[in-house]
Each structure stands twice: as C-alpha cells, then as structure tokens.
Design brief:
Blueprint (H helix, E strand, L loop, with lengths): L2 E10 L5 E17 L6 E5 L2 E5 L6 E6 L1 H4 L5 H9 L4 H4 L7 E3 L5 E5 L4 E5 L5 E4 H4 L2 E8 L4 E8 L2 E8 L4 E10 H7 L1 H4 L14 E4 L2 E6 L2 E6 L5 E4 L4 E6 L5 E6 L4 E5 L2
Antiparallel strand pairs: 1-2, 2-3, 3-4, 4-5, 6-7, 7-8, 8-9, 10-11, 11-12, 12-13, 14-15, 15-16, 16-17, 18-19, 19-20
Length: 266
C-alpha cells in the first residue's frame, strides 16, 4: 500500500461492515488492519504500531517498534531458526505481514526482528512479550471461556504448546510437541501445501469440550488435556474442518476430500 502521511480509506471486514478513516500520520504506512470486534483500525508504519479509533478518528494508542525490537535476549533463538533450511514445518508459518489479528479475540500478534508481541488491540497493552517469556510465537489461539491464550511457540529448537493465563500473565503449562528437526521430518510433507506461491487454504480453529482442548495447526487436529497439557492424540493428515456432535462425545472431521470421519473423544 502506497500511502504517505495520511489514511483515507474504506475497509470491508468479515462481519460485513465498512469503516471510513481519515487520519494524519507521521510516516509512510506499511499495513492497515480493521479489527472487526471494535471497529478500530490498526496501522503499522516503518517505526510504529498504532490504533486509530474507528468512530472518532483519533489515535487510541501507539508504540515504537524499536522499544521492543532492540531487545536482544531472543537473538539466539532467531539464529537457530535462521540456520534451518528447507524445514517445511517451520516454513508453513512464514508470514509477510508483521501485524495479524488473532481470530475471535481482542488481541493482535506483532512480529518484530528479534521479538514477538501479543497486544490488546483496544488498549495497546502488551500482554505477551517473547523476550520475557523466551518463546518465539508460531501461532496463537484465544480460549474465550478461560480468557487464556494457547500459543504454539519455539524455545531452544523445541516446539511447544503453552497455556498462557492473561490475568496472571503466567504460563499455566507447557507441553513439548517435538523438535524443529523431528517435526520437519514427521509433518514437513503435509505442511509443504502451505509453502510456495500457491498455498492450501485451511482455517485453523480452537474449541473446548469438558476437559479437552481441540485445536488445528495448519489442518492437523490435536486434542489436548485442558488441565495438564498432555496431547491425547492428533490426526496424521490435514483436515479442513471439525465439530462436535450434540452430545459432545464425538468429533466429526471433514477432510479435504469432503469425506466425514467420526472419532470418539476418549
């Protein structure tokens, strides 16, 4: 987007609403996102990430990237990731955008050179800072009922699920999924569909049922014990969607061939 010093645009969001924004900015704009929950507009320029109120056109909050990107405690992790070539598991999570909205949540993920942040898009509060928690973020999900984040992160070349409590800002549990090397070998062939110019379109989602978390990662379904974080089982293939039956004791899985598979929760 070639916009300099101002925003003047109508943005269509997934909920079918338009937001009209005209705001003077101090730098060239690199990215604009409409938050469908609040109607506010997230703006990224070369130096800052900001939020513009969709109703008043006033600046709600702003922070300088350098205040977080200059943190060097994650350079070791970044170096490890940069050394890995042709890892289709890791490459599946590459994104061109630095700012992305976390689905069905009031949060946004911000990826910087040596750091990842999760920000409350309404207030600008940084609720998760990778430099402090020592995990680079691959993917984030919001557990609405629990007000927690389920984070797929990297630490010392190990991929883990983290259950992060937003109230206490503490990790309730973490469970290792595997190493970058092992997951590259076991899931790399599946995840090749998400690399390259033409990628497979799968919308990952998360739901909870009784004592389990059900979540898809690039179409691979995992069931996780909500209390311990133990992975009960996962599919060895990519699915396009899943849902629970009325009794919530079986999972109905839809594959990319449009076939249906039933699986017991236990």
């Amino acid at each position: 987007m070639n916009v300099k010093n101002y925003i003047a645009l109508s943005v269509f969001c997934s909920m079918g609403a338009f937001a009209q924004v005209t705001v003077d900015m101090k730098a060239d704009i690199e990215q604009v996102l409409l938050d469908p929950l609040s109607g506010n507009v997230l703006v990224e320029d070369k130096d800052n990430v900001s939020c513009v109120n969709g109703q008043t056109n006033e600046l709600n909050w702003s922070f300088a990237k350098k205040d977080y990107a200059s943190i060097t405690t994650l350079e070791g992790v970044t170096t490890t990731l940069n050394k890995i070539e042709n890892n289709d598991f890791l490459n599946a999570f590459n994104k061109d955008e630095e700012v992305t909205l976390i689905p069905q949540s009031p949060f946004a993920a911000v990826r910087l050179e040596h750091n990842d942040l999760i920000v409350n898009s309404a207030t600008g509060e940084v609720v998760f800072n990778s430099a402090e928690m020592q995990y680079r973020i691959l993917q984030t999900y919001y557990l609405i009922a629990e007000n927690n984040l389920l984070i797929l992160g990297v630490k010392d070349s190990t991929i883990s699920f983290l259950n992060y409590d937003l109230a206490s800002k503490k990790v309730l549990w973490s469970n290792d999924l595997g190493t970058l090397d092992s997951l590259g070998k076991s899931l790399g062939n599946l995840f090749k569909a998400f690399t390259g110019k033409v990628t497979q379109q799968v919308e990952d989602k998360i739901i909870t049922a009784s004592d389990e978390i059900l979540v898809t990662v690039k179409g691979v379904l995992y069931t996780i014990n909500k209390t311990s974080g133990k992975i009960n089982w996962n599919t060895s293939y990519i699915i396009t969607n899943f849902f629970l039956n009325q009794r919530k004791d079986k999972i109905v899985v839809i594959t990319d061939e449009s076939s249906f598979l039933n699986s017991s929760m236990h």
